[in-house]
């Protein structure tokens, strides 16, 4: 694992890619999750999201990234998640995985994203254009 961070500031995609790649790697898989203007559980158009992290979220993220790394031999992983207010189009999560071969990098990248989405103690407030809001992901 190279990076596992919770950040209130803009995520640097290139820094995540650089952190995982080395001369031994022939494959780099990246996932960039952005705020979209709709959600299946929203009753209208999404204007922005507010991400709120549990105080232990960064420690949990480090543990999750380490667990995923342990499941994927020879793969280096970097993952970060934003907190705070994000407008439509802003980057909420970056995950990168590098390996000697593409299949391993793809698999590890998907694994870390799915694991973080399922287990990170992070809550999302969806603010709709009409001013209403809903909370998603409360554990």
Automatic annotation (TrEMBL):
Signal peptide from the UniProt entry? none
Fetch the Pfam families from UniProt: MoaE (PF02391)
Lineage: superkingdom: Bacteria
Q: Which SUPFAM superfamilies match?
A: Molybdopterin synthase subunit MoaE
Check the record and name the InterPro entries matching this protein. Answer: MoaE_sf, Mopterin_biosynth_MoaE
CDD domains, per database record:
MoaE (cd00756)
Which spans of this chain does the record mark as coiled coil? none
GO terms, biological process: Mo-molybdopterin cofactor biosynthetic process
Q: Which PANTHER family match?
A: MOLYBDOPTERIN SYNTHASE RELATED
Protein name as catalogued: Molybdopterin synthase subunit MoaE
